[in-house]
Amino acid sequence: MATNSKVCLVLGAGPGLGYSLGKKWANMGHQVVVTRRRASDQEEIRNNIGENVVAMECDVTSAKQTEELVNAVEKDYGAIDTLLYNAGSGVFKTYENLSLDEFEKSFATNATGLLIAAQIICPRMEKRGGGVIGVTGATASLRGKPVTAGFAPAKAAQRMLAQSLARQLGPKDIHVFMLSSMVESKLEPLVVVGK
User: Fold this and answer.
1) CATH code of the domain covering residue 163
2) 37-73: pLDDT as tens digits
3) I need a surface site. Which of 9, 19, 125, 169 has the fewest CB within 10 A?
């Protein structure tokens, strides 16, 4: 690993942006830790991302699991320099077909999980003098559609939380940004940025 390498944590590594950024960071020589609810596919993750990657299990809606994960990462690899909050849950139904459980799960994963991660990781970044937090958003956070009744509200809450974090943490050299566009991946072959 390069001497100026960073520790990058991806909460929620699926076949899209989480894998793509994990691979980019690993190829740059950084230590990458990716999480999924189930980390049993370590070999698949290594094949898709690279050698400087470790897969761990974490349910981002659990403060206990998230804190245990962060403690383990920092013990084994060092302080987390970059967090990508890529965990998401979307239910694409109209309001009358949406269950309250589905609605709450979407909020728990998209918004509450981000708050949990921020409450655990940001104070550590503050003590060290900085860091980077990226949040994978969605254009649905800006405009709902009939079938996004279970997704758009949670992503809007996530967007507002990310903006609040950015305003509070920016002066402390913690850069918070949200990416809300389509990128090329196995899930989305089109590249449409800024639309």
Assistant:
1) 3.40.50.720
2) 766 666 676 677 767 788 898 999 999 999 999 999 9
3) 169
